[in-house]
Each structure stands twice: as C-alpha cells, then as structure tokens.
Design brief:
two-stranded antiparallel sheet; disordered C terminus
Length: about 300
C-alpha cells in the first residue's frame, strides 16, 4: 500500500478514533480497489469507473461501504495536497439505500415513558430498572450491548456523563440527562449488589435478548405494536429526534460512537420541508434578506 493510504489510515486512528477492526476494513477496501484500478493516488475518473463491473455481484451495502472508503480517501488526498482534483464522482452508487430502522414518533416515545414511569412509581425494582434502561436507550443513544455491559464504575458521580466502551473497545463519554440521573439514583438504591455490573443478572449482566423482551412487553402495556419497539429503534429515535431539533451531524457521530460519518448519515431522513425551513431561518443570508424586505417595505410605505 502507498504512503498516502498509510497516512489516511493513520488519520482515521488519530483524529477520528477509528477502532482497529475499522481501520483493517478500510485497508482491505482500498487494497481491493487498487487491485482493480492500479495506483489509487494517480487514478483517474475512467479508472474508478472500472470498479462498477468489478463490484457488480456485491450487495448494495458492500458497494456503499467500499465507495464511502474511497470518497473519504480522495477527500483526504485533496485536503493534504496529494491531489488537486477529486475523481470520486465516478465511483459506482448502489441501487438501493441501506434500510432504515423502524421509526418511533414523539408521541409513541411519550407513551412508552408514561407506562414505564407509572410502573416505576410503585418502587418495584424491575420496574425502576426498566425505566432506567429506557432513559439510557432513548436519552443517551446507547447500543444494547453497551448498555447491558455497563459497569457500576461507569455511573457518574458529579459529571453528567457515562463512560461507555463501544465497538472495537473504543471508549467515549455520553451525556446523561437530569431525569436519567434521577432514575439511576433510584435504581442504585435498589441495586442488589454483589456484581460489578449496573444491570446484574445470574452472576453476570442482563442479556440483550432479555432487554429486547422487556421492551416488547412494555410496548404492549403502552398500547403500541410490539414489533415497532426494540433497543435499536430507541437508539434510532434518539438520533432522529436530535437531528430534528437541529443537532449537528458531527456531534451526533460522536454521541453514537460511529467511526465513519457515512454511518451516521443514515439518520438524515428528516423531511425536506424542515430542512428548507432550517436554511431559511438559520442561514446568515436569511437575516440579510429580512432586513432588505423590511427596508423595502418601509420605503414603499413612505412613498
């Protein structure tokens, strides 16, 4: 592999915190592309166009991943001065997009919380535990595996953050809301002890399968279709609702623990009308346009 590829992979590790497995996957994708087109640094658009037939038998998700790796690589080359152009427009694009998880509306999330809070009011330990699980899935966007394996030591004392170990053993800090901290405090007072895990079960910790079952049962009690609710759907709702509220995609990438922002971009299925409204309201030219319109109106009125 070329020095440029090594430099790109080093950047992924140093600046984006990419895990070893992620870097190895990028290396394989770039090496495979190089075997088809030759020197990637010197490749032209027509060279990259040869990748389409070479990848013809791959699944759309695989094509999207490989193309994403190359687009990032060429953006890096341009940023670092290795190239003055970007030939990545010639890369093949998969025919179908990565399927999105099921979507929960704000009202459906509210129904889940209403049911969980009502049950937790009894002080029953399993009910309080379920409320905490719900708070951390939807309020912090944790993966099911991250949530289940949380050690007691990860629970914040003063700072409103959890220390989470994600994919590839990468640690990150995730925010914990005030209401989630209150639920955590209630659960810690009921924690059975004798375990290093926050959610112990049979000598280890609660399993992802059991978490899945608990959420399905809660959905039914909340009057929702059980097939609409899962740990990943709640993580997806966390991401979607933050974007709807104006969150930055790079911030969301950090919160979700994605090494590649292309993964985060699957959450950008926000309606076009909201995006147009956001540009009209937040873009610097919007304020300038408003002042011009007010000035024109004032001139017209004076005449």
């Amino acid at each position: 592999m070329s020095a440029a590829v090594d430099a790109f992979l080093a950047m992924l590790a140093a600046e984006r915190g990419a895990a070893g497995n992620t870097i190895a996957a990028y290396r394989r994708d770039l090496k495979g592309a190089g075997e088809v087109v030759g020197d990637l640094v010197a490749a032209r658009s027509d060279d990259l166009a040869r990748l389409a037939p070479a990848w013809a038998n791959l699944a759309p998700a695989s094509v999207a991943r490989k193309a994403s790796a190359l687009r990032q690589f060429y953006a890096f080359l341009a940023d670092e001065g290795w190239r003055s152009d970007d030939p990545s427009a010639a890369l093949p694009r998969p025919g179908t997009r990565r399927p999105l998880p099921k979507i929960l509306s704000h009202d459906e999330v509210a129904a889940l919380f209403a049911a969980a809070e009502q049950e937790a009011a009894s002080g029953d330990p399993p009910a309080v535990r379920l409320l905490v699980l719900l708070e951390l899935l939807y309020g912090s966007g944790l993966r099911a595996s991250e949530l289940m394996s949380l050690p007691l030591a990860a629970v914040p004392r003063d700072a409103p953050f959890l220390t989470v170990t994600g994919k590839g053993g990468q640690a990150r800090m995730v925010p914990v809301s005030g209401r989630a901290r209150m639920a955590l405090s209630r659960w810690l007072a009921l924690h059975p002890g004798g375990s290093k895990y926050l959610f112990p079960s049979r000598g280890k910790h609660l399993t992802r399968i059991r978490l899945f079952q608990l959420l399905k049962e809660l959905a039914i009690r909340a009057g929702l279709a059980s097939e609409k609710v899962s740990p990943h759907v709640l993580r997806h709702a966390f991401a979607t609702h933050l974007l709807e509220g104006g969150a930055d995609l790079r911030v969301l990438q950090t919160l979700l623990g994605h090494a590649d922002i292309a993964t985060t971009q699957i959450y950008t299925h926000v309606d076009a009308a909201r995006l147009v409204a956001l540009v009209n309201e937040r873009h610097p030219l919007a304020e300038k346009r408003w002042r011009l319109q007010r000035s024109a109106g004032g001139t017209s009125g004076a005449g």
